[in-house]
Amino acid sequence: MPEDAAIDLRDDAASQRYEARLDGELAGWIEYELADGRLVLVHTEVPPAFSGRGIAARLAAFALDDIRARDLRVVPRCPYVAAYIRAHPAYRDLVVGIRGTRIPRRGQDPRQPRAQHEPR
């Protein structure tokens, strides 16, 4: 999808999701839960008819920019959003979680502590 394609991005607070509409048709969404000044981003979905057009990335950027503008923080439970934040470090300052939850690197089990290096 070209960058100038007419895509409408919005926060549908009643449905607790960010939405992307292309020519009036729902083309993708990110579901969230609001808790204690944090938006927990739980799931991103783009229907197959709209996949491969960069809609999820535009939605993620829109959601994170909106979260920043509202002076909130984000808990990226959605794997897509977590990967997006890893790829776009300017958003890392928004991330919070339970007991310092961090965004794991690809292939790393987030439940396992980091290996500590002993001095030589």
Low-pLDDT sequence parts: 98-104, 108-120
Q: How would a textbook summarize the main sheet?
A: 5 strands, mixed
- CATH topology name: Aminopeptidase
Find the count of extended strands (DSSP E, 2+ residues): 5
List keywords for this structure.
120 residues, alpha+beta, Aminopeptidase, 2 helices, 20% helix
Fold and architecture overview:
The protein has helices at 55-69, 79-87, and strands at residues 7-12, 17-22, 25-35, 38-45, 73-76. By secondary structure, the protein is an alpha+beta fold. It has one domain (7-100): Gcn5-related N-acetyltransferase (GNAT) (Aminopeptidase, 3-Layer(aba) Sandwich). Strands 1-2-3-4-5 form a 5-stranded mixed β-sheet. The chain starts with 6 loop residues before the first strand and ends in a 33-residue tail after the last helix.
